[in-house]
Write a structure and sequence with these properties.
The complex is a heterodimer of chains A (338) and B (304). By secondary structure, chain A is an alpha/beta fold. In chain A, 35% of the residues lie in helices and 21% in strands. Chain A contains 13 helices and 13 strands. The model of chain A has no long low-confidence stretch (mean pLDDT 86). The N terminus of chain B is likely disordered. The chains are: A alpha/beta (338), B mainly alpha (304).
Chain lengths: 338, 304
């Protein structure tokens, strides 16, 4: 049985101008010991999906789902108190900004011990020893001395390590890393990623790695999910997604990587992510897609299995009859973009 | 072995550690001379509150009409027996002013404490609940703000009846909106930060989030507002006392003393009127200076 199962999850925000969908028709599964990379532009619903899972969608957001199962618990029907117990112990989260993800008013030792006392029922002394052990595990030198440090006395990289120590303190089954390296400088990024993957392997945790840096996930994730405007566009194993992207959006994202640019101008995706007012009726990517046809504008594709992985497109790349199909449905994308 | 290995790094750590928070605070605070002066004056007042019985040469209520309206010592007819003179029924002004700290200052402290407790709670609730609850709380606070403060205090005293404690409640309600708005604003900024989400992920309940995680981070502006609020509170209670709705005679509350001396305004007996007024003035100025100094020391935006 999968550790995490989400079926048809939507997160909606009622606004005066209508309902905004932060996440729409999200379906995913995650097994023990698996790393899922979630990539997408800002505002594509990456983080919101995870917050929804934990019941932390900010006011006035609403969650709707057909299924929301974690470790055999149905999170849709569970009481607030029970959810806090399960989520607090078995799910942990690491954030983008290490300097604000620790409470500035308390020492890191206090914050670590607090979690341990609450969820593991440890005594103060046990918690202190365990905190030292944890700090050592995440590679903080002289952990005894650091216990009394406040977050502002540590560097960003150190704070992120402390945050990771806090996240793994209760041996979670599922770790969410929400852009864990975005705010760190490049040399630290690799260290933090290595630390995360080694911890993940040792503890056989399931991990979701949210990022907008394709390079970060390429080396760490087993499976990848590309999100756009609240919807999954493509899902495949990491190597398939990078070597044989099937969705035009994934392809465009990969082409826009500076690492892949060979001479000439860096490829970009024209246009912007649709907002509330200009949300297309058809495929969400159609206004920016090079290959959009009349059908793309009129009709929204479903997430369906195709060759290796699943995707949301009428004309997947690698389809032999693709060109023919596009021609019959009257290509409009290219004109719009030229 | 591990102990030996880590000892040198640790001692190095402690040497280069930043100064203790209190020392850092004092560094910023003492740079403001006015604030230090305010602190000194307030310390003297606190000393008076604690040891009024020892300092004051006479009690505050014993009247003696034989020596009524004795001028202060430096004026013709004054004597060292009554350094600051006596009032209309022969009570020693100096003693009354000393005892007055117990009422004026203590009232100020009570008012501020009361509105901090209620205001912080309402502010936290408004900041966390959002939606309807927040709107209701804030609109009520807005209504309180639209009424002139003294007028509203008068209305509340009129409803509750005059007296020291009712005056405290009235003034506390009047200055309440400042705390509610201040706390709510800080709560909203703080809850947007990741550590609050982190705490929620870790399973923290609502009350815990409010009081343990967020409140300590909102304290700095609250402390500043409290010290500035003291002066407003003292002034407002004195005003209520002056109007005869606060502390009742013979209590030597400074505002009440002023009210008793109303008939001598413009007469030759200036000390009966002027001295309580000066006491109020100096105290209010001292608290304002202290508040400024605290803001310099506690507000991260003003730190260089």
């Amino acid at each position: 049985m999968a550790l995490l199962e989400i079926e048809n999850l939507s997160v909606e925000f009622p606004t005066r101008a209508g309902t905004v969908y932060a996440v729409e028709g999200m379906t995913m599964k995650l097994d023990q010991g698996e790393i899922l990379g979630v990539v997408g532009e800002s505002g594509s619903g990456k983080s919101m999906t995870m917050l929804a899972l934990m019941g932390l969608v900010p006011f006035p957001g609403k969650i709707r789902a057909d299924k929301l199962m974690f470790n055999g618990h149905n999170l849709l029907t569970i009481s607030e108190r029970e959810r806090r117990k399960i989520i607090g112990k078995d799910v942990a989260m690491i954030f983008q900004e290490p300097t604000t993800s620790l409470n500035p008013c308390f020492t890191i030792g206090f914050q670590l011990a607090e979690t341990l006392k609450f969820h593991e029922g440890m005594s103060s002394k046990q918690a202190r020893n365990r905190a030292i052990e944890l700090l050592e595990q995440v590679g903080i030198p002289a952990p005894e001395g650091r216990l009394k440090a406040f977050p502002h006395q540590l560097s960003g990289g150190m704070n992120q390590r402390v945050m990771i120590a806090m996240a793994i303190a209760c041996n979670p089954k599922f770790l969410i890393a929400d852009e864990p390296t975005t705010a760190l400088d490049v040399t630290i990024q690799a260290q933090i990623l290595n630390l995360l993957t080694s911890l993940q392997r040792d503890r056989n945790m399931a991990m979701v790695l949210i990022t907008h840096n394709m390079g970060v996930v390429a080396e760490t994730a087993h499976r990848m999910m590309v999100m756009y405007a609240g919807q999954i566009m493509e899902e495949a194993t990491a190597s398939d997604l990078f070597n044989r992207p099937q969705h035009p959006y994934t392809n465009a994202l990969l082409a826009a990587l500076p690492e892949r640019a060979v001479g000439g101008r860096l490829a970009t995706i024209p246009g912007v992510v649709p907002g509330l007012a200009d949300r297309p009726k058809g495929c969400l990517f159609s206004p920016r897609c090079q290959f959009a046809t009349d059908r793309c504008v009129a009709e929204r594709p479903d997430l369906s299995l195709w060759q290796h992985g699943s995707l949301r497109c009428f004309y997947p790349l690698g389809d032999a009859e693709r060109e023919q199909k596009i021609k019959t449905d009257h290509l409009i994308g290219a004109e719009a973009n030229q | 072995m591990t102990v030996q290995a880590s000892t040198p790094t640790q001692s190095h750590e402690q040497m280069s550690a930043p100064p203790h928070p209190f020392r850092e605070f004092w560094g910023y605070f003492s740079a403001n001379k006015g604030a230090v002066a305010g602190l000194v004056f307030i310390s003297i007042l606190v000393f008076c509150i604690l040891f009024a019985d020892l300092i004051a040469p006479y009690g505050f209520s014993g009247s003696n009409t034989d020596i009524r309206l004795t001028p202060p010592v430096w004026q013709e007819g004054g004597s060292f027996a009554h350094i600051l003179g006596t009032d209309a029924i022969g009570r020693d002004m100096f003693s009354r002013l000393i005892y007055g700290t117990r009422y004026s200052l203590a009232i100020g402290a009570m008012v501020v404490a009361l509105s901090i407790i209620v205001g912080t709670t309402l502010g936290l609730v408004a900041g966390f609940a959002r939606g309807m609850v927040e709107t209701v709380i804030l609109r009520v606070m807005d209504i309180i703000l639209t009424l002139p403060s003294l007028l509203l205090a008068l209305v509340i005293v009129a409803i509750l009846g005059s007296g020291l404690y009712n005056a405290v409640i009235a003034v506390a309600v009047v200055i309440l909106p400042h705390y509610v708005r201040l706390v709510r604003a800080s709560v909203i900024t703080e809850t947007a930060k990741d550590y609050v989400t982190a705490a929620r992920v870790a399973g923290a309940g609502r009350l815990r989030l409010m009081f343990r995680e967020v409140l300590p981070n909102c304290l700095a502006p609250l402390i500043v507002q409290a010290s500035l609020g003291m002066s407003t509170a003292i002034l407002d209670t004195a005003a209520l006392g002056f109007l005869g709705l606060g502390a009742q005679p013979p209590l030597p509350e400074w505002g009440t003393m002023l009210a008793d001396a109303r008939e001598f305004i413009g007469a030759d007996y200036w000390w009966v009127v002027t001295l309580p007024g000066i006491a109020i003035l100096l105290t209010v100025v001292a608290f304002n200076l202290l508040g400024d100094g605290l803001r310099d020391a506690l507000d991260p935006k003003l730190k260089s």
